[in-house]
Amino acid sequence: MKNLIVIALYFGLTSCGNETTPADTHVKGDSTTVHTDTIPKINPYKDATVEVVVFENAAAGGGQKGFGYDIKIDGKTYIHQPNIPAVPGNDGFIEEERARKTGELVAYKVKNNIMPPSVTLEELDSLGVLK
To answer: Tens-of-pLDDT digits for all 131 residues of the chain?
Structure first.
């Protein structure tokens, strides 16, 4: 009888520990919730034309100085960035090439569906656009 209880406890404990559910599924009562953040997303920009257009803020008006960039998808403005992202203030880049490098990074993120296509100070520093 003692062996039967030990065997029953062994199977009872091991069967509970081996229960698996997908990482993106959470069971709550009778319903199942699927979180879509782990499901591969279709890239809507895979075949799109993503381009960077650099502009001078003084020419664009508004009292800002320096250069900014637009990200255009299939010819339509998707992002208008007149100032340096991730940096406090409203000043643009001091050189056109710096705005272009940053715009190209953002365009890369858009083209590869890395959303949001935000830019960090570390990325700007690695591009050499903050010096």
So the answer is: 555 554 555 555 555 544 444 444 444 455 555 555 556 678 999 899 999 999 999 766 667 789 999 999 999 999 999 999 999 999 999 999 999 999 999 999 999 999 999 999 999 999 999 97
Compute the distance between CA of residue 74 and CA of residue 106 in angstroms, rounded to an integer: 15
d(CA 5, CA 20): 26
Torsion angle, CA of 62/63/64/70, rounded to 10 degrees?
20
Go through 103-114 and write b for each residue having 16 or more CB atoms within 10 A of its CB, e for each that does not: bbbbbebbbeee
Put simply, whether the predicted model's pTM sits higher than 0.70 gets the answer no
Tokens of 87: 């940096």
